[in-house]
Queue: 2 jobs
Job 1
Amino acid sequence: MDYMEIREQICDVCHKMWQLGWVAANDGNVSVKLPDGNFLVTPTGISKSFITPEKLVIIDSGMNVLSAEGAYKPSSEIKMHMRCYTEREDVGAVVHAHPPTATGYAVAGKSLDEYSMIETVIAIGSIPLTPYGTPSTDEVPEAIAPYLAEHDVLLLQNHGALTVGCDLITAYYRMETLELFAKISLTAHLLGGAREIDKPQIDKLLYLRENYYHVTGRHPGYKHYNNKN
Ligand code: 13P
């Protein structure tokens, strides 16, 4: 992909997030690691519906602005994004949004750690709730860092959701999977509660992840199951 294609892909993702109702006003931010080691980042304070390729900002790994049109500045959440890249060499893109059902769990102080739906078990595993942090400060990167070793999808306490991927489409798909799983979990809760999958069946799903689907990224494996059973 050349740099213009990456810029256009970021805009597509931003527009999708707005259309899906995952972001209001200037909510949400997206970043992508470029082949030269620099980063393309959404600017702060702009609706994701209005993002166009030239508005994106290029920064280096020290968060210095290398290229920006007019008065555009990188997202105020850039420290959170950069921590994902420094913790994980395999991360090529980071997406932050407030999808309403997943964020409902984050606001209610609930993780999404039931192994109850096969696609989510394979793709993501358990989804932890990371501790509260004031946006834009070092509190958020400090809060998420311990979870990144085993997770590609995080709920941010009283805030929203964060996904990482080897590329932007992977990080974006993880946000879709998270929000759909949150809706399904809420529905199952209304119907009397989700039935968890038993361990021999989870074994088979994790085998599929490793040997058939070749899913990239990290997975917490049985940690959730062992904690509960
Ligand atoms: P920015 O506009 O600075 O990216 O911030 C949006 C946001 O979602 C803060 O949590």
Job 2
Amino acid sequence: MFKNRSYCGELTVQDVDRRVELAGWVESNRNLGGIIFIKMRDVSGTVQVVFDSSLSLDTLKTADQARSEFVVFVGGTVRKRDEKNVNPNQPTGYIEVSAESITILNASQVPPIQIDAKETIGEETRLKYRFLDLRREEMRDAIIKRHQACQIIRNYLNNNRFFEIETPVLNKSTPEGARDFLVPSRISAGEFYALPQSPQLFKQILMIAGFDRYFQIVKCFRDEDLRGDRQPEFTQVDLELSFIDQAAIMAVIEGLLEEVVREVTGREISLPFRRLTYREAMDRYGTDAPDTRFGLEIADCSDIFRNSEFSVFAQALTGGGVVRGFSVNDAGKISRKMLDRFTEEARVFGVKGLPTLKYSNNAAEGGIAKYLGPEEIAELGNRFELSGQGTIIFAADEYHTACAALASTRVRVARELGLVNEDALDFLWITDFPMFEYSEEDGRFYSKHHPFTAPKPEFINALDGLKPEQADSVLAQAYDVVLNGVEIGGGSIRINIPEVQQRIFSLLGISKEEADTKFSFLVDALKYGAPPHGGLALGLDRIMMLLLKKKSIRDVIAFPKTTRGQCLMSNAPSPVSSDQLRELHLKVVDR
Ligand code: ASP
């Protein structure tokens, strides 16, 4: 029956006079008394189908009965639309199908979502009726674009001699920093698998096994509190390569992203991407994922205020902190009210406030101006160009706290003042990350990337007797790729020498026993000829969201979960029967 089916959205004036058969859904049905217009839809788009009054009564009756979202099979002939009915905004707007027959293949209840609705539909309804939501043009396009991006990725990597190899989903937990999702084992009572947070260990094992270039478009799972726009399961384009250095990995990724951008947006980007070291990014933008589509660069002002009489600055500096800030030449557009709001929002980062200084043509005149001496103001004038009218926003605190508050405020200000070029695709590499972070609370070092990341060779000797306050000083061969202020991927060159791996474990407080129980297979494998290797993982959901200019990653995932980790369509997660629990040797103790 469907052998000769044409696609609705692909018919053009080239098809005029062609007899076609279409299968799909009724998007709308207008009966103008004697003549019926059905907008018919399939995965390729829509086309207007016209049932002229010359058709048999039976055919017209069936056409009339085909309501919204009924599934129909239509036979007819393509013809040009009358001049006055042409719709140049629609791909099939110059033609229509003059129907000869219609069969209703299936009925539909009145849908709770109008598929061609112009107004926004509540997200809960969209997620609950995802099968209908996915029929909407916007969602359908996003899912198809994602498919196309995946094909491009596969082709590109295949052409670059990568092998696509699956790694297990039922695993031992890997120390990637987040909480694992656990799966109880029925056969081994009291034991659990962990869902992979990433295929890190397996991809390294594949390098040791000799598959010198691996990739996988792979689901990863992290049981985190779902702050903001995250998903408990997300998709990575995961890569690992042997006999390679950092620069070559970056070049492979740039080539890959160039093709993905071309496929998804039709645009060309320029290579190579700009590079910033972690330190530069932190100093100039307060974050390791800076949005550099606009200026508002942060400058350190600690030296200016060394002997300040302004107690807020003085206290921060004597406490070992910093005074940093950025200047907004805003012609007075930043109001007191806005500043209060920015300050309120910055408090979540731990700052007490955001002191501000208003200036006009090189003279300070508002905010904290009255607490500053003429020399301090002159120095500020040198540091920031205080021409025109503007505001300097400061943070005076411990370095990382000040950075976090200013980074976030910088983006807020740029958005509110319309300084962000929403059309830009600003790719950036961040390199030279520190190997470690030190947690005062836990009294130990943590890896900034993960424990398998190699230090830069010149820092190997610095590992011995590393002090907490030196945590930042040992640099790693680690790199992140950032797009428009969002980290879209990260990776590193790995340790391939067992002794170095051992030293890193012990610095991280991972005992030999712990290393043996958690990842002995990698430790073991490193002893049997591990080639130099490294890799990276890209976040596919985020990349698609940014390229398609969506507000949320949920808009580029076919079946996403809510921020509470629920699937509103299937109602997962859900309780299970006591029999299932018994089989798994589990008891639910509190709910
Ligand atoms: N496994 C790392 C991650 O998921 C990426 C990498 O180092 O390749 O972030």
